Amino acid sequence: MLKPSAQGKVRNIYDLGDRLLFEATDRISAFDYILPSLIPAKGQVLTQLSLFWFKLLKDVPNHLISTDPTDLPAEFAADKAALAGRFMIVKKLKMLPVECIVRGYLAGSALKEYQRSGSVCGIELVAGLENSAKLPQPIYTPSTKAEIGEHDENINYQRSVELLGADYASQVRDLTLKIYQTAADYAADKGIIIADTKFEFGLDEEGKVVLADEVLTPDSSRFWPAQQYQVGLSQPSFDKQYVRDWLDANWDRQGQPPVLPDAVITETTNKYKQVYRMLTGEELPY
Description:
By secondary structure, this protein is an alpha+beta fold. The chain has a domain at 94-243: ATP-grasp fold, B domain (D-amino Acid Aminotransferase, Chain A, domain 1). Helix content is 31%, strand content 26%. The chain contains 7 helices and 16 strands. The chain has helices at 42-56, 80-83, 108-117, 157-164, 166-189, 241-250, 262-280; strands at residues 6-7, 11-15, 19-24, 27-30, 33-38, 64-66, 87-91, 94-95, 98-105, 119-120, 123-124, 134-140, 143-144, 192-203, 209-212, 221-225. Strands 8, 9, 12, 13, 14, 15 and 16 form a 7-stranded antiparallel β-sheet that branches. A 5-stranded antiparallel β-sheet has the order 1-2-3-7-6. Strand 2 and strand 3 (19-24) form a beta hairpin. The two termini are 19 Å apart. The model has no long low-confidence stretch (mean pLDDT 95).
């Protein structure tokens, strides 16, 4: 495989000149660390589920150009098997320096902040909400984008205006809430609660906002089985919360994270494949 032009926590990015090639690897991150273990088929789940959502959200401009192996440049000829199902050729964009997070339920860092202050990212919430409670309406809670090994920082909407400008800040906020509602309604019919999720947007050559990167995957979202949902408790999930929970119980956050046991790796793969199957109605063909 060629050396990537850039690497994220999960993705390898190759510069093709006027386009980019995104490879979703089987790496997994948690607590802003890249774990030493790989999760088999994870890259294919992230890619194929993103493609599913891009198709469902066809009214929202996105960065996808092709996933056809015949469109791979000649220098990737020897890598077609390794890239199968896990690559996208995408437009080059000027990425906006904000992660666009939307929350429909109270969990994770939002729950901790609410318990401390009664608000989330400067948004005052009603009193008395419990763990995993459904919010009166979805809220937009952006964050900064941290470098690998550093922590994202939750910010309020006004700070996003300072970073993006008023026009782009309002555009990505409104798009984030619109996409979430469409996806949440769809997922509810499939027995899945999308508790929260995050999106990334960039600008094309004309300055138009374009949806980029992965979309509504188990890496970027909390997916809960609707039949097991109980307010006041932490929920079982189809996302990497399972890995976070194991790390919480087995790692003191000192030094590098430990290798995951084989059973945790297998169960994580199974969870990723299960949510793909529930949302798409199909088995992952990889």
